[in-house]
Amino acid sequence: MLVLRRDFNSLFDSLFLPDESLGFKEKDDKFLLKLKVPGFSEDEIKVSINDGIIKVEGKCERKDDTFTSVNSFTESYTLPRNADLESINAELKNGILAISLGKKELKSKEVQVKLLK
Prior knowledge:
With 117 residues, the protein is mainly beta. The protein has a single domain (19-103), classed as Sandwich (Immunoglobulin-like). It has one helix spanning 2-16, and strands at residues 23-26, 30-36, 45-50, 53-63, 68-78, 83-93, 96-103. The chain has a four-stranded antiparallel β-sheet, with no helix packed on it. A three-stranded antiparallel β-sheet has the order 3-4-5, with no helix packed on it. Strand 1 (23-26) and strand 2 (30-36) form a beta hairpin. The longest helix is centred in the first third of the chain and has 15 residues, at 2-16. The radius of gyration is 20 Å and the shape is elongated. The N and C termini lie far apart (84 Å). The relative contact order is 0.20.
């Protein structure tokens, strides 16, 4: 009974307590987004970027003879201007979705504005 309780507590902690490694983080050479997605497979998760916003969606449906379960989630994050959208990678491993984006150098441009008289 003690082993079962310890296993349940460990499962509960891993699913519901905050994990400092999760979320959107900036590293020296890249941006990293990590999300817990337990029970989802690669074909049940969609990652898209539109207008500087990365959106992660998941939907899974499980059926048996008497029960149907549907789980879904949506997470959105605004990307920094220097996120390199051409160098995006994603990996799903052990219920953790890790998405990395490289950084690109922003070129500043000075514009002279003439005042109207």
